[in-house]
Amino acid sequence: MTLNLDDLVDQLAAQPLDRSLDGLEWDVARGIARRRADLKTGAALAPIRVASVGLALAMGVTAGGLAAASTVSAPQQFSTFSVSAHLAPSTLLEGDQ
């Protein structure tokens, strides 16, 4: 839960002037402790984040390399009406046959 400082100030302004400030220090200390705990959790999860990004990168490079290697084939004759042109839309729509 994130607390917006402007909302807190607005809530404080809406309170009557004779409001007791008992517990204000405790609320501030609790907020600081919660922030520290969030930072520790984020620091603990940093290696997992790095590992997941590295794994995603490795998978992408592998899949891209395999896709690139599968498109490399023997030189084909390119002519205007060639059906075997590997980049022609007609051959891309046909799929692997």
What does the model show?
- The mean pLDDT is 80.
- The chain has 97 residues and is mostly helical.
- The longest helix has 48 residues.
- The radius of gyration is 31 Å and the shape is elongated.
- The chain is 66% helix and 0% strand.
- It has a domain of 43 residues.
- It contains 3 helices and no strands.
- The chain starts with a helix and ends with a helix.
Q: What's the short story on this structure?
A:
By secondary structure, this protein is an all-alpha fold.
Mean pLDDT rating: 80
The number of helices is 3
Structural class: mainly alpha
Helical content band: 55-70%
Q: How many beta-strand elements?
A: 0
Rg? 31 Å
Helix/strand order, N-terminal first: HHH
Shape: elongated
Strand content: under 5%
Straight-line N-to-C gap: 56 Å
Low-confidence stretches: none
- Biggest β-sheet, characterized? none
Organism: Caulobacter vibrioides (Caulobacter crescentus)
Protein name: Anti-sigma factor
